[in-house]
Amino acid sequence: MGSQGSDGCSAKVKLPEIKFTKLFIHGQFVDAVSGKTFDTIDPRTGDRIAKIAEGDKADIDLAVKAAREAFDHGPWPRMTGSARGKLMFKLADLMDQNVEEITSLDALNAGKPLILVKLVDFSDAVNALRYFAGAADKIHGETLKMSGSLLGHTWREPIGVVGLIIPWNFPTTLLFGCLAPALAAGCTVVVKPAEQTPLTALYYGHLAKLAGIPDGVINVVTGFGPTAGAALSSHMDVDKISFTGSTKVGRLIMEAAAKSNLKSVTLELGGKSPLIIFDDADLDMAVELARAAVFFNKGEICVAGSRVLVQEGIYDEFLKKLIVKTKEWVVGDPFDPQVNQGPQIDRRQFEKVLAYIECGKKEGATLVTGGKACGSKGYYIEPTIFADVKDDMTIAKEEIFGPVMSLMKFKTIEEAIERANKTMYGLAAGIVTKNLNVANTVSRSVRAGTIWVNCYFAFDADCPYGGYKMSGFGRANGLNALDNYLQVKSVVTPLYNSPWL
Ligand code: NAI
Ligand code: MG
Fold first, then answer.
1. Whose CA is nearest to atom 44 of ligand 1?
2. Is 100 a catalytic residue?
3. Where in the chain is the domain with CATH 3.40.309.10?
4. Average pLDDT over residues 443-451
5. Ligand 1 atom 29: the closest Cα is on which residue?
6. Alpha-carbon 395 to chain mean position
7. How many A from CA of 132 to the centre of ligand 2?
8. Quick one: which atom of ligand 1 is closest to the CA of 399?
């Protein structure tokens, strides 16, 4: 554990006050129709932080009704893009003014180092909000010169009421990755945050109201996936679902869409991303990247570089340096500024990751460091490295979503490409080399949505991001992300008094 003692929990931390625990529907905080609540848990201890309203189908119905009304009759989709953008900028300013409180809530609820929540989660989210706020008044169609004497033009119109189903690993970043373009497009939304991390989404409901975003534009229903989430994805009055989470639930969302109103769906799902390190790599940089690629956010990140392929010429030296660096990686209380890695999100994920570690040992991979839980309470796991991992081992194939690296040796560039692609996923890949030809060849041959050359986790609001293969479809970030929330309407008129009817 880190420097704060064996229970993984600093004594002196001032925890944020929990102000919002009810559903946010049509601009009001309300109890669930059933009156039920569920506990949101502190992953440092397993103790309850607060009781949160447990929304269900009845609450989703109310939230969708509010969003539908705001879309069909309210000002939001009808106001100018610049007016919408102005309110979004206001929301971003309010987020900045409340940065300490917001980031403490995410650090507490998701077990993430507070410093990193500020530097990564929060700043990515606010940047995305401002990026799309600036895009809100730049959404326009095309003028078409059609055959004959017809004039055509297109409108890009908001798609309607959007359901945003968000996971727990980046409660703020992944929410704004969808919410910002949806708002810019003129959509209204119902947010279903993950049951593990409801706190910040409710806080953003409060800030949206303060910013002057009209009631009903943003609604937040906290609750569980199979109840609230399923009610949202199968709702007849929802026009679109943006989902980030497991591949298994992604499939359920598509099924629900197919069986209800054929709503459009964008999916950002799991991954098993390769980080490929060539003999000519800067070794220290490669070690830093490999360590961060899988241990950052305790491995709870869909783009985690969980398969590290290292060329044979540097493999042994790389491993030696990596073990030293991994032992310096501090696990402990996310509120301690020295800490690199907090607890896993909950008991279920904690047990799942430990089961994968057992599976790695059983299938014959070599455990070189880590491999155990740590601390006397909470869900802490040591950063763990398996060497000599074979492609057909479970730990090489399945998304572990924990601090577990699978290290593999390769000989040639062709072999690296083939093995990198030997996965049902295709979210990201990393390449470490000084050779431009190698970088170009590999980046064009690996089937993944984002390729990082001599870097990892380099995200930006302007850089599209999303999956190939079973990692999903549709792109977040970049101006094209607006297309997820827009429809194209073609309008055709005769230029002259022509016979077209
Ligand atoms: P999950 O996919 O069940 O949860 C994500 C969101 O989907 C949550 O808001 C949840 O309430 C909702 N959900 C669950 N079942 C639903 C349903 N039937 N209909 C509609 N919404 C539903 O993920 P879970 O179970 O928390 O984690 C399992 C694994 O999924 C992880 O170990 C990891 O491999 C992967 N995962 C990937 C994420 C990513 O960023 N791509 C994020 C979270 C999990
Ligand atoms: Mg699940």
1. 245
2. no
3. 274-453
4. 98
5. 246
6. 22
7. 30
8. 34
Give the model confidence (pLDDT) of 400-424 as tens digits. 999 999 999 999 999 999 999 999 9
Q: Tens of pLDDT along 18-32?
A: 999 999 999 999 999
Nearest 5°: phi and psi at 80?
-65, 155
Pocket of ligand 1 (CB under 6 A): 165-167, 169, 192, 194-195, 224-226, 229-230, 233, 244-246, 249, 252-253, 268-270, 302, 349, 399, 401
Ordered alpha helix ranges (H), 112-160: 114-116, 123-135
Task: Please name the amino acid found at residue 154.
Answer: T
Question: Does residue 501 register a pLDDT over 90?
Answer: no
Residue range(s) of every CATH 3.40.605.10 domain in the chain? 23-269+471-479
| 472 Cα nearest atom in ligand 1 | 41
Best of 52, 238, 249 for a ligand 1 pocket test (most atoms within 8 Å of beta carbon): 249
CB under 8 Å to 195, separation ≥6 — which residues? 38, 40, 168, 222, 223, 224, 225
- The amino acid that residue 293 corresponds to is A
- Has 398 been annotated as catalytic? no
The residue nearest atom 30 of ligand 1, judged by CA position, is 246
CA distance to 65, 236, 277, 292, 319, per residue, from 282 (Å): 56, 54, 9, 16, 14
Cβ atoms within 10 Å of 420's Cβ, excluding its own: 24
Query: Which fold, 274-453?
Result: Aldehyde Dehydrogenase; Chain A, domain 2 (3.40.309)
Position 145 pLDDT exceeds 90? no
**Is the pLDDT confidence value at 3 over 90?**
no
Q: Are 141 and 156 in contact (CB under 8 A)?
A: yes
Look at the domain 23-269+471-479 and name its fold: Aldehyde Dehydrogenase; Chain A, domain 1 (3.40.605)
Q: What residue type is assigned to position 448 of the chain?
A: A
SS3 162: strand
